[in-house]
Amino acid sequence: MLIKRRVRRLAILLISLYLLPVGQLWYYQVLIAPRLNERPENSRSHENLELRGRLLDRQGKVLARTDKGRRVYPLGAAAAPLLGYVTERLGSGGLEGELARSLAGRPRPRTLEQVRRLEREKSRRGDDLVLTLKADLQLQAFELLGQDRGAILVLDLPTGDILAAASSPGFDPATLEKSWQRLSQDKSAPLIDRATQGLYPPGSCFKILTMAAALESSQADGPFFCAGSLPVTGFELSCDGARAHGALTLESALAVSCNVTFASLGRMLGQKGLEDWIKSFGLLEAPTRVPLAAAGHAPRGRPGAEEVAAAQAAIGQADMLVSPLGMARVAAVIGRGGTDLPPRLLKAVSRDGRTVDTYPVGPPRQVVSAATAATVLQAMRAAVDRGTGGAAGAGVAGKTGTAENPHGPPHAWFVGVAPADAPRVAVAVILENKGYGGQHAAPVAGAIARAALR
Amino acid sequence: MRARELGLLAAVLAVVAMALALATRSPEFRGPPPWIWLVVQASAWLIASLVLRWKKAAGDPLLLPLACLLSGLGWVMVWRLDPTLGQRQSLWILVGLLAFILTALAVRDYRRLEDYKYLCLVCGVVLQLAVMLLGTEINGARLWFRVGGMQFQPVEVVKILMILFLAAFLRRYGRWMRLGLLSREGRLPRRALLLLGLGWLAAEGVLILQKDLGMALLFMGIFLTMFYMATGRTDLVLVAGFLFVLGAVAGLLAFSHVRVRVYAWLDPFADAQNTGYQMSQALFSLGWGGLFGTGLGMGEPNRVPEAATDFVFVALAEELGFVGAVAILIAFMLLVTRSFRVAMRAPDEFGTLLAGGLSVLIAWQSLILIAGTVKLIPMTGITLPFVSYGGSSMLASFVILALLTRISARREEPC
To answer: Average pLDDT in the B33-43 region?
Structure first.
């Protein structure tokens, strides 16, 4: 009968379909099972929270520890976006997730053989990780951000250490499980650490880099003249309020943040030339000793519009994006006399109170000449002493930024070093959609720089 | 033949007893071990087998032991996950077995069922409409009736009624469709076509309106497969399948709840704590089990939401490993093979279509669910026959088993 032939055909088809889940099971249960077990969201892999290692600051103050089966964070919201979390239901995130391999205590036994081994050996605590942060500075930085959305990053110049990386809004790690639904959907992204992972247009702060690049390429012979605006292939760039600055030296151009001067420097350097400099300042790579840090994006000029892109990028606009960590790194190069050190957040690993491993400082790398760095630093001092950055206060050298962006009012930036005559720290401050950098970010940057020097 | 069935049942029950012994030895096992329930269950299975033999209704000797293996392992897992659900599941299995015996006794001659095809259609449509209008709303969908403290999912009955109707309808009119719907001889009686269309609209429409996408997919699969079985019109089936894919894409674009599920399927880790939570937990569960599993009672399958219903297969795969999961797949393959064999050996066309339809139901339902839990297709909330926790679905599975047994018995006692 025909119908039975079709039944047979269907039977063969449907029964062979059962082979598909077999393949899929093989993939998940055998081939990639080890990788699944290690994923940070997987709360099965680090159940033994009691044995999980601690996170410590550079002076040994506790940033995260386990108490009665719960993870405790003494700094609370002030360090939450950076440190992350570990909970039974949510697994882990932030540094807690990224460093799980070192922090995790002995995994819970899974097979009979492991149970036997566990009985033979005594249980082992996970390693403690020492971070380069300074707990009290971190707290101060977070308090300075207040109700604003934004970030503060402080670098130690001799080592490249991150002393503070504050991000606002934060969240309360103690009540994370209850507030997860709200936090994870919050448009202001409280779970992201803006200081190392946030990417923003750098605005006029970027002129520090443009100036150094121009000096190195010997294309910065002044004097310059600002007529208030500059036409670039069918596009017009203008200074704030289209006000003409008139005749300027390069130093005073930085001090008053003249867009016309720097845009014309950018045009001379060209898009390719500028991109090479962005790269050599280390902005396009993710620093390896800062877990989770985001790499910046170079400006991408459309073919035929490279000139516009170069002119806009030179004043920190266009489609270039940089993190506060990246901008602090640029200021640090100037403050160190032209030398770059890779930023560092992990300092050492310690086990049972003994240091078992340290993350090295450096290696140093000369990015621009000492003479160039000195000239730019002088101009940054002028910007604070008699230019746009006055609100930062005495003893600081730096540059303001007011970055246009598609999300509303401009971001307020300040990037600088302190003390101005022999810099020891670099700071970057951004306040999202807050307005003028000189008005809002500069005072915050001055306050945190002075706190860091204390 | 019966002796073989009894022997296999005894062997399978021994396996279930060992599984229970392992699960209850775990330090995480809560409450007293349900040995008494196992004894009651075992007796019920043996009684069911003996009653069939006594009433000369004995059929394929593998069907009952395979169902016993699947429901037994499922029961141990459900109990291990949640003793309260386990207790109820014990009851559902007993009620299911009772329904099995009663159905097998009531349906002396399955060919009589063919006369009730329109009654089946009307009952199915009425049930579907009733649940949409009068059902209890859970999670924004009306798919259940609540009586006392119990919930009942009428769609589980509707799916059997639909297969009965389709088998009878296609037996009668399949010939016309085989010739071609447009040719003069091929033109169907208008009334029959209208009935088919209305019934179909009620079944699919209600499911889609109530967002029961798994059932909608299952009904579609059964309908097309049975249509092919009866008519051999591959072209029409392909056209309908294509239209279904178009509909699915439209659904994807139009409904956010569909989109959420598809995204959670494509990349569960993109939103691992919200929409992708269940799927990523299921994958972690699979990975944790590995090749040989954690051992019964030694894993943590409770971390997967809905582990006892939608994700019971994953729970088993975690604790029994890849090896155990494949064993369960093989049990399903054998069950489906045997029920298709019943269809092949049925003495008449209605029997072939009915048994074929029921086989297709078991095959599609288990495939859709398992494929959903191992991330082959987006997850849909339907149950795994015999294994998942759930009264309505358990009852339906046993009624299907009874019908298959009855059809297979026909051949052995010629009339």
So the answer is: 94
Residue B411 confidence class, pLDDT cut points 50, 70, 90: low
Residues A115 and A167 in one domain: no
Are A97 and A198 contained in the same domain? no
- Cβ contacts of B353 on chain A, cutoff 8 Å: 3
- Residue-range definition of the domain harbouring residue A119: 49-132
Instruction: Note whether B269 contacts A39, CB cutoff 8 Å.
Output: yes
B371–chain A Cβ distance below 8 A for any pair: yes
Which of B280, B326, B337 has the CB atom closest to A25's CB atom? B326
- Token pair listed for A179: 């507030």
Q: What is each CA distance from A122 to A106, A129, A303, A409, B27, in whole angstroms?
A: 10, 22, 65, 59, 21
- A286 and A434 inside one domain: yes
Of A407, A444, A344, nearest to A200 by C-alpha is A407
Cα angle A279, A282, A287 (rounded to 5 degrees) comes to 135
Number of domains in chain A: 2
String of DSSP letters for A35-60: HHHH-TT-TTTT--GGGPPPEE-TTS
Tell if the CB–CB gap between B340 and A17 is shorter than 8 Å. Answer: no
List the CATH number of the domain containing A259: 3.40.710.10
B352 touches chain A (CB under 8 A): yes
pLDDT tens by residue, A274-285: 889 999 998 998
- Which residues on neighbouring strands pair with residue A416, listed in sequence order? A398, A427
Residue A239 has a pLDDT of 83
* Interface pTM, i.e. ipTM: 0.92
Per-residue DSSP letter, B207: H
Same domain, A141 and A126: no
Q: Do B229 and A10 touch (CB under 8 A)?
A: yes
B349 neighbourhood in chain A, CB within 8 Å: 1, 3
Residue A222 near residue A229 (C-beta atoms within 8 A): no
pLDDT per residue over A301-349, tens digit each? 777 777 788 888 888 887 889 999 999 999 999 999 999 999 999 898 8
For the stretch A16-66, pLDDT in tens is 999 999 999 999 999 988 888 878 778 775 456 777 888 899 998 998 888
Confidence class of residue B415 from pLDDT cuts 50, 70 and 90? very low
